[in-house]
Amino acid sequence: MIKRRYTFNNNKITATLKDSSGYYLWIAYLGSGGSCILKKVSAFNPKVIYFNLTISVDIIKRIKQDSTYIYLAVDSSSYVGIKISKTNPLSSITYISKPEGITEPSIDLAVGSTYLYLLFAGEMSATTAKVLKYNKTSLALASTITLDGSAGDIYNTRTITIDGNGIVWIATYENPIKLIKLETDDSYEYWEIL
User: How far apart are CA 115 and CA 135, in angstroms?
Assistant: First the structure.
Protein backbone atom coordinates (compact mmCIF):
# COMPACT_ATOMS: atom_id res chain seq x y z
CA MET A 1 0.00 0.00 0.00
CA ILE A 2 1.31 3.41 -0.96
CA LYS A 3 0.61 6.25 1.45
CA ARG A 4 0.77 9.81 0.20
CA ARG A 5 0.56 12.94 2.25
CA TYR A 6 -0.69 16.16 0.71
CA THR A 7 -0.32 19.55 2.34
CA PHE A 8 -2.89 22.20 1.49
CA ASN A 9 -2.47 25.91 2.09
CA ASN A 10 -6.20 26.54 2.25
CA ASN A 11 -8.53 26.96 5.19
CA LYS A 12 -10.74 24.28 6.68
CA ILE A 13 -12.52 21.91 4.29
CA THR A 14 -16.30 22.28 4.68
CA ALA A 15 -17.60 19.82 2.06
CA THR A 16 -16.31 17.27 -0.45
CA LEU A 17 -17.72 15.25 -3.33
CA LYS A 18 -16.24 12.48 -5.44
CA ASP A 19 -17.38 13.15 -9.01
CA SER A 20 -19.50 10.35 -10.50
CA SER A 21 -16.80 9.81 -13.15
CA GLY A 22 -14.42 8.74 -10.37
CA TYR A 23 -11.65 10.96 -11.74
CA TYR A 24 -12.31 14.18 -9.84
CA LEU A 25 -12.95 15.53 -6.36
CA TRP A 26 -14.79 18.75 -5.58
CA ILE A 27 -13.44 20.31 -2.38
CA ALA A 28 -15.00 23.34 -0.63
CA TYR A 29 -12.87 25.44 1.69
CA LEU A 30 -13.98 27.87 4.38
CA GLY A 31 -13.37 31.37 3.15
CA SER A 32 -13.46 34.81 4.63
CA GLY A 33 -15.24 38.05 3.89
CA GLY A 34 -18.21 36.35 2.22
CA SER A 35 -16.21 34.22 -0.23
CA CYS A 36 -15.38 30.51 -0.24
CA ILE A 37 -13.10 28.48 -2.49
CA LEU A 38 -14.36 25.50 -4.49
CA LYS A 39 -11.79 23.38 -6.31
CA LYS A 40 -12.13 20.57 -8.82
CA VAL A 41 -9.02 18.42 -8.39
CA SER A 42 -7.70 15.07 -9.56
CA ALA A 43 -8.93 12.14 -7.46
CA PHE A 44 -5.49 10.55 -7.95
CA ASN A 45 -3.39 13.58 -7.05
CA PRO A 46 -5.28 16.40 -5.27
CA LYS A 47 -2.45 18.85 -6.05
CA VAL A 48 -3.58 18.78 -9.70
CA ILE A 49 -6.24 21.51 -9.87
CA TYR A 50 -8.63 21.70 -12.82
CA PHE A 51 -10.80 24.58 -11.58
CA ASN A 52 -10.41 27.01 -8.71
CA LEU A 53 -13.63 28.96 -8.12
CA THR A 54 -14.43 31.79 -5.74
CA ILE A 55 -18.00 31.35 -4.53
CA SER A 56 -19.74 34.38 -2.96
CA VAL A 57 -21.15 32.74 0.19
CA ASP A 58 -20.06 32.39 3.81
CA ILE A 59 -19.92 28.55 3.92
CA ILE A 60 -20.50 25.73 1.46
CA LYS A 61 -22.33 23.20 3.64
CA ARG A 62 -22.90 20.28 1.24
CA ILE A 63 -22.17 19.24 -2.37
CA LYS A 64 -24.36 16.84 -4.40
CA GLN A 65 -24.46 16.00 -8.12
CA ASP A 66 -26.32 14.67 -11.09
CA SER A 67 -24.77 13.72 -14.43
CA THR A 68 -24.31 17.34 -15.60
CA TYR A 69 -24.22 19.65 -12.58
CA ILE A 70 -23.07 19.92 -9.00
CA TYR A 71 -25.35 21.59 -6.47
CA LEU A 72 -24.32 23.36 -3.28
CA ALA A 73 -26.21 23.96 -0.04
CA VAL A 74 -24.81 27.21 1.35
CA ASP A 75 -24.82 29.59 4.29
CA SER A 76 -25.30 33.11 2.97
CA SER A 77 -27.42 36.15 3.72
CA SER A 78 -28.57 36.23 0.07
CA TYR A 79 -28.52 32.65 -1.27
CA VAL A 80 -29.71 29.16 -0.30
CA GLY A 81 -28.06 27.14 -3.05
CA ILE A 82 -25.92 27.10 -6.19
CA LYS A 83 -25.94 25.10 -9.43
CA ILE A 84 -22.62 24.69 -11.28
CA SER A 85 -21.79 22.95 -14.55
CA LYS A 86 -19.34 20.08 -14.03
CA THR A 87 -17.63 20.60 -17.39
CA ASN A 88 -17.63 24.40 -17.57
CA PRO A 89 -17.88 25.75 -14.02
CA LEU A 90 -16.14 29.05 -14.76
CA SER A 91 -18.99 30.33 -16.91
CA SER A 92 -21.96 28.36 -15.62
CA ILE A 93 -22.68 29.25 -11.99
CA THR A 94 -26.28 29.97 -11.00
CA TYR A 95 -27.05 31.32 -7.52
CA ILE A 96 -30.44 30.48 -5.97
CA SER A 97 -31.71 33.51 -4.05
CA LYS A 98 -33.06 33.19 -0.53
CA PRO A 99 -36.87 33.42 -0.66
CA GLU A 100 -38.83 35.63 1.69
CA GLY A 101 -39.53 33.97 5.03
CA ILE A 102 -36.37 31.81 5.06
CA THR A 103 -34.17 32.89 7.96
CA GLU A 104 -31.82 29.91 8.31
CA PRO A 105 -29.09 28.65 5.98
CA SER A 106 -29.65 25.47 4.00
CA ILE A 107 -27.88 22.53 5.62
CA ASP A 108 -28.29 19.75 3.06
CA LEU A 109 -29.81 19.01 -0.33
CA ALA A 110 -31.10 16.17 -2.43
CA VAL A 111 -31.10 15.99 -6.23
CA GLY A 112 -33.92 14.08 -7.91
CA SER A 113 -34.75 13.54 -11.55
CA THR A 114 -37.10 16.56 -11.67
CA TYR A 115 -36.62 18.48 -8.43
CA LEU A 116 -33.88 19.86 -6.22
CA TYR A 117 -34.69 19.81 -2.49
CA LEU A 118 -32.93 22.17 -0.05
CA LEU A 119 -33.26 21.37 3.67
CA PHE A 120 -33.48 23.94 6.48
CA ALA A 121 -32.91 22.53 9.98
CA GLY A 122 -35.48 24.29 12.11
CA GLU A 123 -34.47 25.36 15.57
CA MET A 124 -35.62 24.17 18.94
CA SER A 125 -36.80 27.78 19.56
CA ALA A 126 -40.03 27.12 17.63
CA THR A 127 -38.85 27.47 14.03
CA THR A 128 -39.97 24.30 12.32
CA ALA A 129 -37.89 22.62 9.63
CA LYS A 130 -38.54 23.47 5.98
CA VAL A 131 -37.80 22.02 2.56
CA LEU A 132 -37.63 24.21 -0.52
CA LYS A 133 -38.51 22.24 -3.66
CA TYR A 134 -37.10 23.70 -6.89
CA ASN A 135 -37.55 22.72 -10.53
CA LYS A 136 -34.09 21.31 -11.28
CA THR A 137 -33.89 22.77 -14.80
CA SER A 138 -35.30 26.29 -14.34
CA LEU A 139 -34.54 26.59 -10.60
CA ALA A 140 -38.03 28.03 -10.13
CA LEU A 141 -39.36 27.49 -6.62
CA ALA A 142 -42.08 24.82 -6.91
CA SER A 143 -43.08 24.75 -3.23
CA THR A 144 -42.09 25.54 0.33
CA ILE A 145 -42.78 22.56 2.57
CA THR A 146 -43.02 23.46 6.25
CA LEU A 147 -42.71 20.34 8.40
CA ASP A 148 -45.51 21.14 10.81
CA GLY A 149 -49.15 20.25 11.06
CA SER A 150 -51.27 17.21 11.80
CA ALA A 151 -48.38 14.76 11.43
CA GLY A 152 -46.41 16.68 14.09
CA ASP A 153 -43.87 19.49 14.06
CA ILE A 154 -40.33 18.62 13.02
CA TYR A 155 -37.27 20.40 14.43
CA ASN A 156 -33.52 19.96 14.18
CA THR A 157 -33.31 18.12 10.84
CA ARG A 158 -29.86 17.08 9.67
CA THR A 159 -29.91 15.14 6.38
CA ILE A 160 -32.03 14.67 3.26
CA THR A 161 -31.70 12.03 0.55
CA ILE A 162 -33.65 10.42 -2.28
CA ASP A 163 -33.83 6.65 -2.56
CA GLY A 164 -33.82 4.53 -5.73
CA ASN A 165 -37.62 4.85 -6.00
CA GLY A 166 -37.52 8.67 -5.93
CA ILE A 167 -38.82 8.93 -2.34
CA VAL A 168 -37.39 11.79 -0.27
CA TRP A 169 -36.21 10.91 3.25
CA ILE A 170 -35.19 13.33 6.02
CA ALA A 171 -33.60 12.50 9.39
CA THR A 172 -33.45 14.65 12.51
CA TYR A 173 -30.60 15.15 14.94
CA GLU A 174 -32.38 14.50 18.21
CA ASN A 175 -33.25 11.68 20.59
CA PRO A 176 -35.27 9.81 19.50
CA ILE A 177 -34.39 10.35 15.85
CA LYS A 178 -37.31 11.10 13.56
CA LEU A 179 -37.24 9.58 10.07
CA ILE A 180 -39.49 11.60 7.74
CA LYS A 181 -40.90 10.38 4.43
CA LEU A 182 -41.85 13.25 2.11
CA GLU A 183 -44.69 12.36 -0.24
CA THR A 184 -44.99 13.56 -3.85
CA ASP A 185 -47.90 15.83 -2.85
CA ASP A 186 -45.56 17.52 -0.30
CA SER A 187 -47.29 15.91 2.69
CA TYR A 188 -45.18 13.85 5.07
CA GLU A 189 -45.23 11.16 7.70
CA TYR A 190 -42.56 10.19 10.21
CA TRP A 191 -41.39 7.48 12.55
CA GLU A 192 -39.40 7.79 15.76
CA ILE A 193 -36.28 5.59 15.77
CA LEU A 194 -35.15 4.58 19.24
Answer: 5
CB of 117 closer than 8 Å to CB of 132: yes
Q: Which of 113, 121, 117 is nearest to 71 (CA)?
A: 117
- Output the tens digit of pLDDT for each of the chain's 194 residues: 666 665 555 579 999 999 999 999 999 999 888 899 999 999 999 999 999 999 999 999 999 999 999 999 999 999 999 999 999 998 899 999 999 989 899 999 999 999 999 999 987 556 889 999 999 999 999 999 998 866 678 889 999 999 988 899 999 988 889 999 998 888 888 898 87
Domains of the chain: 99-193 (2.40.10)
Dist CA 36 CA 32 (whole Å)? 7
pTM of the model: 0.90
Handedness of CA 55, 56, 59, 60 (dihedral sign): negative
